[in-house]
Amino acid sequence: xxxxxxxxxxxxxxxxxxxxxxxxxxxxxxxxxxxxxxxxxxxxxxxxxxxxxxxxxxxxxxxxxxxxxxxxxxxxxxxxxxxxxxxxxxxxxxxxxxxxxxxxxxxxxxxxxxxxxxxxxxxxxxxxxxxxxxxxxxxxxxxxxxxxxxxxxxxxxxxxxxxxxxxxxxxxxxxxxxxxxxxxxxxxxxxxxxxxxxxxxxxxxxxxxxxxxxxxxxxxxxxxxxxxxxxxxxxxxxxxxxxxxxxxxxxxxxxxxxxxxxxxxxxxxxxxxxxxxxxxxxxxxxxxxxxxxxxxxxxxxxxxxxxxxxxxxxxxxxxxxxxxxxxxxxxxxxxxxxxxxxxxxxx
Length: 347
What we know:
Elements: H1 3-39, H2 43-64, H3 66-76, H4 84-90, H5 102-113, E1 120-121, E2 126-127, E3 131-137, E4 143-149, H6 153-170, H7 176-181, H8 185-196, H9 199-217, E5 221-222, E6 235-239, E7 244-245, H10 249-254, H11 259-277, E8 279-281, E9 289-295, E10 298-303, E11 309-311, H12 314-328, H13 332-341
Parallel strand pairs: 5-10
Antiparallel strand pairs: 1-3, 2-3, 3-4, 4-6, 7-9, 8-11, 9-10
C-alpha cells in the first residue's frame, strides 16, 4: 500500500522537474539572444541577431509545443511589425503540429463528456498548437468535427507564460527603449490565449458570427453548427464540413471556382463582421476557411475557427469605417483625423 503514495509523489516530482527544465531552457535561450542584441553595434550585426533569435524561438516551439508554439505563431504573423527574419522563420510553425496520444485524448473525452459520447471517433485530420480535430459520428448519425484540447497543454501553460514573462523582463537589460516598444506583445498574447483556451466561448462566438453573416451573405458564407450537448471548455463539437483551403488556388481551378469570387466573399464577410458589427476575426489564416464547391462555379465558404476574436468599441469601429471611407474617396484630411483617433498617427 505504501507504494501508491510513493509513485504519486515520484510522478509529481517528475512533472515539476520537467517544468523547471522547460522554464530554464527558455530563459537561457532568451538570455543568449538578449546578450547578443546588447553587443550588436552595426545593422548587419542586428540582422544576424534577428536570424539567430528567430531560429531559437522556432526550435523552442518545435521542441516543447504548447503555448511556446502558439507564441511563435503569433510573432510569425506580425508582418509589418516584427523583423522579417522572425516572420519568415516562424511562419513554418503554421504547419500542422504533432497530434496527442490517442489514449490520452480518449481519456479526456471520457472525463469531459462521459464514456461513449460518440458512435465512432476517428484519427485526427488536423492538429495545431492548442488542439487537434477529429471526425466522429453522433448516436443519431450526424457527422461532426470534434476539436479536443491537447491533454498535456494545461500542465505547461503556467510555466510557459512565466518563462516568457522572465524573458521580456530581462530584455530591458539589452535596450529599455525597444523593450518599451514591445511591451504590448505579451499582454496581448496572454489575453488571446485565455480566449482560445475556452471552447465554450469559441462556440458562442461561432454562433454569433454565423447569425450575423447569415443576414447579408446567406448560404455563401457560413459557420458550422455547434453541438452544445457535446461541447465543454476543452471540447468543441461542430458539424463536419468538407472542402479545400481558401488559399488553394489549384483546387479552385479544378472545381471551376473563380478565385476572385472566393477572395471577394472572404474579404466581404470579415469586413462585414468588423465594420458593421465590431467583431474582428484575429486569426484568419488559410487553414481556418474551407471552400465547398457546389457545381457550376458556385461554392460555400465555411469559416471554421472562432477562438480568437476582438470586439471593437463603438467609437473605434466608427473611426475605422471613417478611415477606410476617407481613403477610398481620397479625403486625406478626414483620413488623418481618423488615423489620429485610432492612434495610427500623431496629431
